Amino acid sequence: MFTNALNRLSNDTQEYINRLGKYQPDFDDSLYSGCVPIRAAVLVLLYEIDGKIRVLLTTRSKNLRTHPGQTALPGGKADETTDKSALDTALREAEEEVGLPRKCPHIRIICALDTFVSKYKILVTPVVAFLTDVSVLNDLKASDAEVDLIFSHPLEALLDPLLASAEPDLVPIGSVDWPYDVEYHNSSDASLPWCALTYRMHRFRSAASPIKGMTSDVLIRTAEIAYAKGPAYQRWPTNQTPGFTGTHKSLAAVLANVQ
User: Which Pfam families did the record assign (predicted)?
Assistant: First the structure.
């Protein structure tokens, strides 16, 4: 069934999805032997519109205690009583936040990416999936308690921000949702308080709240794999090894010292 649905997509999209499907995470979970990190998962739900891949995003409710009003992928912390895997967590949270049925027959799981580390020392596993029937989007409903808005963004624009210029409904420059004087993307560096590494925060202008932080990190990596190319901007801080291996090692050391 998925093969038939895939064949209806553009040739380019088929190639991008195939690349993602072949991806094998390189995350070494043994780093955390002897300590118990908090785990979470997010759903990177992709779909095709007019031959281009888009990704489903949300703006978190301004009433939430953490990250109020920020852009997010559907997801959250693992529930140890019900979730057996990152996939379980991602699908459960997507159902709770945007009303996406966790057993929707039009969703195909593509891959899991390497686990990311949040600034709150949480391990986050992105689960990439593809929606083969975009009519499902019409039935999504934002959770009153958790989500203010459901929107989308072209995936490739996370590598080349200029591609967002084709979006008809970007928020105005200088507005509350994009209080910057640059057109589509900016970045800044900051030290992580619990390790000797620098974090580069990327921000992307969208149709709603900025795509930034871990959400942008996850989508940049998804796009790098799908399109087999790097970003048009400087991804990592100067003189820092690309990737999150150093962050994982630092977090494992911190957790080991507090067990």
Answer: NUDIX
